[in-house]
């Protein structure tokens, strides 16, 4: 079987190019060096935000304890609870540190019990939780006006 001259040349040309590339391959070789991408391992610090965004986009993990932030009723309940606790904290602060502050006292609400006593230079608060038995003690220094 005989091939036309043009077919022989079109086949021979790629073979010659491959042979030349293979023979000069040793001259182009260099050492392989590793450069980390993640900035936590010495990579470029500008990669951090991009890598975090990619990881967050790929994750499928959902926190089982997280509340649904898009649920309007859940958001309303959290806001209401926060406002009520803030008002209660303001009232307790007025009782302990206000104009008619008492020397000691006990405040109860729900499972919480706050006892306080005023000393010469500080107020000691003891917060007890009857539900889990935890006790927290806070010592608040009193400000004294210097003359």
Can you lay out the helices and strands and say which pair or pack?
Layout (H helix, E strand, L loop, with lengths): L4 H19 L24 H11 L13 H26 L6 E6 L2 E7 L3 E8 L5 E7 L6
Antiparallel strand pairs: 1-2, 2-3, 3-4
What is this structure, in a nutshell?
The protein has 147 residues and is of the alpha+beta class. It has a domain at 103-142.
Question: Which features does this protein show?
Answer:
alpha+beta, 3 helices, 147 residues
Commentary on this structure:
- By secondary structure, the protein is of the alpha+beta class.
- The protein has a domain of 40 residues.
- It is built from 3 helices and 4 strands.
- It has a 4-stranded antiparallel beta sheet, with no helix packed on it.
- It starts with a helix and ends in a 6-residue tail after the last strand.
- The mean pLDDT is 81.
